[in-house]
């Protein structure tokens, strides 16, 4: 698994559905450079089971991300038509109607591959035929990308394991606290708590108090 933290987020341009009902061509994260931090998250499949719980969880917290000047973008290897179709299905029926943040269609698998969250593998067998081993879908990857386009946090869950959206918000808060104050964030830090200077004396004081 590649570690992208500290590196430029891989560029992509792809089809997407935005605002819950509009197709967008050549969607990329370039539009946020210099303007917004980004939470980019991958999910395995449309019309499945854990995935809609995550997508709605991000939507339920979307105002909190927006208040922090953070864009939320979802990606799966489904087509934009599949995304659109799922967006027409009510939440009560397992659909994602009401999702307004962009859903990117990684139909050629390159986005997931470049972020190293693509499950499965493709290779040529002894007969020279291309074969696939495992499903070529995305793991539950999540990347916090800053305004300069640099990955500052990443998390990858296996397919059955849903993510905690509050933890994604906590990481946004930690990054923005560091950027604003120059102080680092100790274990279990949350918004409203004190940070600490990056030195041994501050660490010793924190450990003595906790």
From TrEMBL:
<comment type="similarity">
    <text>Belongs to the peroxiredoxin family. AhpC/Prx1 subfamily.</text>
</comment>
<dbReference type="InterPro" id="IPR000866">
    <property type="entry name" value="AhpC/TSA"/>
</dbReference>
<dbReference type="Pfam" id="PF10417">
    <property type="entry name" value="1-cysPrx_C"/>
</dbReference>
<dbReference type="InterPro" id="IPR019479">
    <property type="entry name" value="Peroxiredoxin_C"/>
</dbReference>
<dbReference type="InterPro" id="IPR036249">
    <property type="entry name" value="Thioredoxin-like_sf"/>
</dbReference>
<keyword id="KW-0560">Oxidoreductase</keyword>
<comment type="function">
    <text>Thiol-specific peroxidase that catalyzes the reduction of hydrogen peroxide and organic hydroperoxides to water and alcohols, respectively. Plays a role in cell protection against oxidative stress by detoxifying peroxides.</text>
</comment>
<dbReference type="InterPro" id="IPR050217">
    <property type="entry name" value="Peroxiredoxin"/>
</dbReference>
<dbReference type="Pfam" id="PF00578">
    <property type="entry name" value="AhpC-TSA"/>
</dbReference>
<protein>
    <recommendedName>
        <fullName>Thioredoxin peroxidase</fullName>
    </recommendedName>
</protein>
<dbReference type="InterPro" id="IPR024706">
    <property type="entry name" value="Peroxiredoxin_AhpC-typ"/>
</dbReference>
<dbReference type="InterPro" id="IPR013766">
    <property type="entry name" value="Thioredoxin_domain"/>
</dbReference>
<feature type="domain" description="Thioredoxin">
    <location>
        <begin position="3"/>
        <end position="177"/>
    </location>
</feature>
């Amino acid at each position: 698994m590649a570690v992208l933290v500290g590196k430029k987020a891989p560029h992509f341009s792809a089809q997407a559905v935005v605002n819950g009902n509009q197709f967008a061509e050549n969607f990329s994260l370039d539009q946020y450079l210099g303007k917004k931090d980004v939470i980019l998250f991958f999910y395995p499949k449309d019309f499945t089971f854990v995935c809609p719980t995550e997508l709605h969880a991000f939507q339920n917290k979307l105002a909190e991300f927006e208040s922090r000047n953070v864009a939320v973008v979802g990606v799966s290897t489904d087509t934009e038509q599949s995304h659109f179709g799922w967006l027409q299905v009510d939440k009560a029926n397992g659909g994602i109607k009401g999702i307004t943040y962009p859903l990117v269609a990684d139909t050629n698998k390159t986005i997931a591959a470049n972020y190293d969250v693509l499950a499965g593998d493709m290779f040529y067998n002894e007969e020279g035929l291309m074969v696939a081993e495992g499903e070529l879908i995305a793991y539950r990857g999540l990347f916090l990308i800053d305004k300069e386009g640099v990955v500052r946090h990443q998390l990858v869950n296996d397919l059955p394991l849903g993510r905690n959206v509050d933890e994604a918000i906590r990481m946004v808060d930690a990054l923005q606290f560091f950027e604003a104050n120059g102080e680092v964030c100790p274990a279990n830090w949350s918004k409203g708590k004190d940070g600490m200077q990056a030195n041994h004396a501050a660490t010793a004081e924190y450990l003595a108090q906790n």
